[in-house]
Amino acid sequence: MSYSQRLLARERSVGRPVRVGVVGAGQMGSGLVAQINRVPGLFMSAVADIDVTRAERALAGAGCDRVTTTDDPSAAAAVIEAGESVAISDGLALTRLPLDVIVEVSGVPDVAAEVAYASLLAGKDTLLMTVEADVTVGLLLADMANAGGAIYSICRGDEPVECLKLIEYAEDIGLEVVLAGKGKNNPNRPTDTPTDVRDEAIAKGMNPKMLSSFTDGTKTQVEMCALSNATGYPVDVPGMHGVPCSVDELAAKLVPASDGGIVNHDGPVVEYVTGNVAPGVFVIVKSGNDVVTHELDYLRLGTGPYYAIYRPYHLASIEANLSIGEAVIDRRPSFQPRTWTSEVVAVAKTDLKAGLTLEGIGGHHVYGQAMPAGEARSHNGLPVGLAAGCVLSRDVAAGQQLSYADVTVDETRPIVAMRRLQDAMLANGTLGRR
What's the CATH number for 3-155+318-328? Predict the structure, then answer.
């Protein structure tokens, strides 16, 4: 039975639909709000945005005709209990409202981490579309959720999750996964800044900082790091290879070097390519049986023993509600870190001078590079998700990886406190045992 059918059955049993709250009403959040309200058995009960007018517009765009705007939690709770919708400016306030699921879509790692932490403490199922927070403190959040009976998950529709679903499919039919990855939509220009991409961003109706985070490669590094931590697959080299590749070339290029490909690691890895693969995701699999190889060749999957299983799209916020179904109905996450295999560290885009307050992801100062977590620890590497607001304590040259020793970190930030706790628990062996 489909999730929509099962959600309707739940509504008949409970007497009301699943009440969903969303934090963040930008482009992605507004699309998510509209889509959620089209799914039988789900209801868009609350939207929070620091600009409350955006929350109001998102609810209106979803067809919610009875919307109350209030920052009074008691009044907001009464509106939700009455089966209506509320627009509110404080995302943390959603964690105190009678909601079943909170979906965080702000795109700001600090906001996402704090909302997720508070939501899980309140016992609510918590879904993130801000993957940058997951690669910074996701293992802590996942362990909190799993210990307390709530669900923590990255949402369906993003490349890491849809790639994981291909991995699960390949494993379920008995194929060996060699590599998993995505196509990158934009050219890889690590030194791009919001200023460089401003005109392109305006033409696309995007925030220049957001576009910069795509073109400088950070988004791709973050997404594949998240996949690495969900699977235990490492990156083959820091930053990954990122070779130009067409769909037809995947199963030839992205295989072990001993068989003519680019992969040096013994075992499956995560990777990305440029070319016509975007916006798709893929896994490279190997058949270890001559009979199966013959059958796959006959079925036109390719020419063995390596094959590409390719999904030519990911639908971002349009698919995210599938994770609500998985959480509420099946009580399982779509995607969460199970190891801390990889880390995304901050690297200087240009020569940076002591005293500078760093901009975060997509800004003028740093980009992210995925690397083995152990190597990042040995270099004392600064996670890119913590970079915003750090003050440089010494000069850093262009292309140099930043370390904690290079910056003064604001220890009052909740995401920093969460990261310190995660690091301590990893060090003493109480995280990452699953």
Answer: 3.40.50.720
The DSSP element (H or E) to which 115 belongs, if any, is helix 109-121
> In CATH terms, are 3-155+318-328 and 342-427 the same topology?
no
134 token code pair: 């997951």
Peptide bond into 305 cis (omega under 30): yes
User: What is the DSSP code (8-state) at residue 381?
Assistant: B
| Domain 342-427 in CATH 3.90.1210.10 | yes
The residues, any chain, with a CB within 8 Å of residue 40's CB and separated by 6 or more, are: 4, 5, 7, 8, 11
pLDDT at position 433, please? Answer: 53
| CA distance linking residue 386 with residue 4, whole number of Å | 38
CB contact set of 143 (below 8 Å; sequence gap of 6+): 425, 431
Strands 42-48 and 101-104: unpaired
Residue 346 has pLDDT above 90, yes or no: yes
DSSP string, 227-269: HHHHH---BSSTT----B--GGGHHHHSSBGGGTSSB-SSS-E
16: β partners: none
Contacts of 76 (CB under 8 A, 6+ apart): 46, 68, 70, 86, 88, 93, 97
Q: How far apart are CA 29 and CA 54, in angstroms?
A: 10
Give the strand pairing for 176-184 and 281-286. Answer: antiparallel
Model pLDDT for residues 25-74, shown as the tens digit of each residue = 998 999 999 999 999 999 999 999 999 999 999 999 999 989 999 999 99
- Domain locations along the chain: 3-155+318-328, 159-313, 342-427
pLDDT per residue as tens digits for the range 161-177: 999 999 999 999 999 99
Looking at residue 401, the DSSP 8-state letter turns out to be: B
Closest CA relative to residue 116, chosen from 152, 80, 82, 84: 152
* Tokens 């698919």, residue located: 319
Query: Measured between alpha carbons, how far is 212 from 214 in angstroms, rounded to an integer?
Result: 5
* Contact between 403 and 380 (Cβ < 8 Å): yes
Which residue in this structure is represented by tokens 């920052």? 71
Chain-centroid distance, C-alpha 249 = 27
Cβ proximity of 164 and 227 under 8 Å: yes
Q: pLDDT tens digits for 67-110?
A: 999 999 999 999 999 999 999 999 999 999 999 999 999 999 99
d(CA 399, CA 401): 7
**Length of the chain, please?**
434
pLDDT category at 384 given cuts 50, 70, 90 is very high
